[in-house]
Amino acid sequence: MKVAEKGCAICQATWGDYWEEVEGQRMFFCCDICAIEFKNMISEVKKRTGWKTLDEIKMTGNYRGRECMALYGGRRYNFSIRFDSKGGIDAFSEHA
Fold this sequence. Notes:
Elements: E1 18-22, E2 25-29, H1 32-49, E3 56-62, E4 65-72, E5 75-83, E6 89-95
Antiparallel strand pairs: 1-2, 3-4, 4-5, 5-6
C-alpha cells in the first residue's frame, strides 16, 4: 500500500521509532496511537467498501480531522475521519 514517503504513515511526524505490520507491509509510525488510528481507518474503509485491500490512501488535515481518499483498482472512496485520544474512530463521513 502506498502511503506518505516520509515520516509517520498517518501524521508524517519524523520523531519516534514505532514499526508495525499493516496489510502485510512494515510501516513506520511515530507512536502506537498513530498505528492504531491507521489500522482502524483501513478496517473501516474496507468494511464500508467491501474491498479486500487498498492500493493507496491520501490524507490532508491533522488531529482535528482528516480529509481522505482511498484508492483500489482504479476506484476511489472519499471520506472524512476524526479519532479519539486512544485511536478509535470518533467521526466518519463518506463524500461523493
